[in-house]
Amino acid sequence: MNFYVMTLFPEMIQNGLNTSITGRAIAQGKISLKAVDIRDYSTDKYRHVDDYPYGGGAGMVMQPGPIFDCYMDLTKDMGKKPRVIYTTPQGRVFTQDVAQELSKEEDLVFLCGHYEGVDERILEEIVTDNLSIGDYVLTGGELPAMVMIDAISRLVPGVLSNESSAQFESFQDGLLEYPQYTRPEEFHGKKVPQVLLSGHHANIERWRREKSLERTWQRRPELLKDAVLDKKDMAFLKSLSENQKE
Ligand code: ADE
């Protein structure tokens, strides 16, 4: 899978993603990352890429020309038109489901905004998806692009060394993950739950499932309405809410 990022801060993207698991995936060729400096497409001798807003007001607006030339250059050798993601607090919220959907693409282009915004005409022309990482405003689109690339990359086959670990984690079946423990068996007087030391796989699995259900019920109850639940799960949740009433 190939990621392309159109940005005014390519080094921020490269430095952020060329480390840890995404860095290894890039080094192994499981994903590729190209961060392109929009400023390289400025036609101005001072390399300007922004100007005052028509109609007045504070701040500067990124001009459409350099972004368009950057986009044309990036996409000229692609077989089909790629999805182009504009990172904006006005977008649809990026969730695990969106990450899943995007992980199936071969090429993904991100456009990171700055200043007060980007000229609307270029957004209308090239952007296919407006995506937000949450209801707060950041200084630019680079961190959101990095967040999305990280979440999408780890779903690309071969990126996680343990293939199964993307499957059994938070948001699998729409539930939060169960708690994990490692050595020592006792830490500051707290013991690892006995069932995990029992070697009884069915009991361990049931315990983990119930912890997932309990955590989700306590911390993110709104997730339960879309979770994949069987009869046993429902009975367990019912017992949780009955115990609470007592
Ligand atoms: N740009 C600024 N804030 C943002 C957010 N919350 N999500 C995506 N892009 C942004």
List the helices and strands and how they pair.
Elements: E1 2-7, H1 10-17, H2 20-27, E2 32-37, E3 50-51, E4 61-62, H3 64-75, E5 83-93, H4 96-102, E6 107-112, E7 117-118, H5 120-126, E8 129-132, H6 142-153, E9 186-187, E10 190-191, H7 201-219, H8 231-245
The structure holds adenine.
Summarize the structure.
With 246 residues, the chain is of the alpha/beta class.
How is this structure best described in words?
- This protein has eight helices and ten strands.
- With 246 residues, the chain is of the alpha/beta class.
- α1 (10-17) runs parallel beside α6.
- It is elongated and about 70 Å long.
- The strands form three sheets. It has a five-stranded parallel sheet, with helices on both faces. Strands 3-4-7 form a three-stranded mixed sheet. Strands 9-10 form a two-stranded antiparallel sheet.
- Adenine is lined by residues 87-89, 132-134, 136-138, 141, 144.
